[in-house]
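Bench notes, afternoon.
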Amino acid sequence: MAEQRVMRIFLPFVALQSIAFYATAMDLPTPALRECITAGEQLHVTPAIREFFGRLDGAVLFNQYGPTETHSVSSLRLDGDPADWPLMPTIGYPINGADVHILDERLCPVPAGVVGELCVAGPPVSKGYWERPELTAQKFVPHPLEGGTGALYRTGDLARYLPNGQIEFLGRRDGMVKIRGYRVELGEVEARIRSLRSVADAVVVARSSGVGDTRLIAYYRPGGQPVPDPAALHKELTTCLPDYMLPSAYVPMQHEFPRTPSGKIDRLALAAGEPPAATAV
């Protein structure tokens, strides 16, 4: 990036985090960079990302949202002092032409501030799945709202409109779990762990014993030596997370997290493994 004087990059959060972490840890400047666009995964503004953009001269970060079945449908511009950027930025405002709605289970609009399913209509929506008519009919439904035309794509993502018109992304419906009766979004727990200076990256999965006892397991990559102790991480997290959101075990990872063919973290592979008993707290 430095040698080729790259000015604009488009990449998912996992790649941005890796670049930011290594660029800052090894003091590798990228002075030409002016614009970065991230999409495909929920953006967490980690310490490495704050430091990376803090070293740049006026570079901006765009957080965009758009599932595979659509073009990008919303965007948020982050500029100014990265120290002031939120830990979990919103996905911004709908782009021109995107018809974005937050709907309940009956496909009726919910008021601002109420959580519902993020649904998209208009030019950004694709025509469906190739040779998968049943799945297409399930996910691409006739537009149910007055004045709406064409298909409405049900993303399966949870979100809500904020009073300022921005959309707050709250993760997948299958990423929301119940711990002792409380609803917990795994991405929020991950963001808090990634905000710790001693952690380079983290993934949280929910594991059930089969008798209604669901617990959180945190897998983390250390940010340096010595490797942070699970008990120390747990103690740090008690200052920013309520008790029911605290992982019950922490698993240090010496290598990269397993990936899907598309490059995203393979959460199913992590969930299938057994965490070492010694990491429990």
